[in-house]
């Protein structure tokens, strides 16, 4: 453990380790990208390459979390109340406070679950270096049309969902764990006040995007996982984590059942569906807010 080192030195060493680890795994990933480009879409060979790519990404992430746990000494308290398997398909919703949440989630699920996938904007496929990696990992790229675009061209209505369904079809034969940060941005007290959020520790969930993802993925999902992340000693950014300021993280995972109607309805065109979906998601968010407060109180009493 290197926590005895001054924060700046520890952060520098950890940053270099993570950079070297990324370069190490980047080589086989880009070789895999070349092979994947040469295989036809939908073929068994491409599915096998996709699985290999996901495995490589998972090893990269696992090494990062190993460094953080064993060299910095971050304590992870994992409270997982869910039956998760490496070959399953899951939809995950989580609160979001810092970029460190990604590494916390990797640590929480480890190798017991598939590697994460994210819904990304279509334009991000052109991002240098990362765009080809996201494509190779079969991250679903979403092409969303604004209300004004749909008003000008009504034929676009519903095309967003169909585009996303086709993107999700690329990993229909693969394990997957699709992650959504429902607040859409990292939580801060300033954002909470600006939103006039009714929650003490959360921003308002973006129900539309989540309904869109749920409908696109469909009932082949094994289950929905509700993840709550709490930093009992306060939230820090990535540098704060790498320089040893984060000591403990609590992660609680609940397995939820999605009502059948939410797989088949239309959030955009059905007002009744939209109302029921918002109420259902709002209740999940109330419970999450109460859970965060309970965990904070639990750790405050231990000090």
- Averaging pLDDT over every residue, what do you get? 87
Main structural class:
alpha/beta
Specify the number of helices.
11
Rg value: 20 Å
Sheet of most strands = 6 strands, mixed
Instruction: Could you tell me the CATH topology label.
Output: Glycerol-3-phosphate (1)-acyltransferase
| Overall 3D form | globular
Biggest sheet strand order reads 1-8-7-2-6-3
What portion of the residues fall into strands of 2 or more residues? 5-15%
Second-tier CATH architecture: 3-Layer(aba) Sandwich
CATH class: Alpha Beta
Number of folding domains?
Answer: 1
Q: How would you describe the overall organization of this protein?
A:
- There is one protein chain.
- The model has no long low-confidence stretch (mean pLDDT 87).
- The chain is built from 11 helices and 8 strands.
- Helix 6 packs across helix 8 (207-217).
- It has a single domain, classed as Glycerol-3-phosphate (1)-acyltransferase (3-Layer(aba) Sandwich), CATH 3.40.1130.
- It is globular.
- The strands form 2 sheets. Strands 1-8-7-2-6-3 form a 6-stranded mixed beta sheet, with helices on both faces.
- With 303 residues, it is an alpha/beta fold.
- Helix 4 (130-136) links the parallel strand 4 and strand 5.
- The two termini are 23 Å apart.
């Amino acid at each position: 453990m290197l926590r005895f080192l001054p924060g700046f030195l520890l952060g520098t060493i950890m940053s270099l380790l993570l950079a070297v680890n990324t370069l190490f795994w980047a080589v086989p990933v880009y070789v895999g990208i070349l092979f994947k480009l040469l295989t036809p879409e939908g073929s068994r060979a491409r599915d096998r390459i996709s699985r290999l790519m996901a495995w490589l990404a998972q090893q990269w992430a696992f090494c990062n979390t190993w460094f953080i746990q064993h060299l910095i000494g971050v304590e992870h308290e994992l409270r997982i109340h869910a039956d998760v398997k490496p070959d399953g398909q899951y939809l995950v919703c989580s609160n979001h406070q810092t970029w460190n949440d990604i590494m916390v989630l990797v640590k929480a699920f480890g190798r017991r679950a598939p590697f994460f996938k994210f819904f990304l904007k279509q334009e991000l496929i052109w991002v240098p270096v990362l765009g080809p990696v996201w494509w190779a990992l079969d991250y679903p790229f979403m092409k969303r049309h604004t209300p004004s675009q749909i008003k000008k061209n009504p034929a676009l209505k519903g095309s967003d969902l169909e585009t996303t369904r086709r993107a999700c079809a690329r990993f229909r034969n693969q394990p997957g764990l699709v992650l959504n940060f429902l607040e859409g941005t990292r939580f801060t007290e300033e954002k909470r006040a600006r939103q006039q959020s009714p929650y003490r520790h959360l921003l308002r969930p973006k129900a539309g995007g989540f309904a869109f993802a749920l409908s696109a993925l469909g009932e082949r999902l094994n289950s929905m996982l509700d993840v709550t992340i709490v930093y009992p000693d306060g939230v820090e950014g990535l540098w704060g984590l790498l320089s040893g300021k984060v000591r403990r993280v609590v992660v609680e995972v609940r397995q939820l059942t999605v009502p059948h109607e939410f797989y088949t309805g239309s959030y955009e065109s059905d007002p009744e569906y939209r109302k029921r979906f918002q109420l259902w998601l709002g209740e999940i968010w109330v419970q999450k807010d109460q859970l965060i407060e309970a965990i904070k109180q639990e750790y405050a009493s231990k000090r």
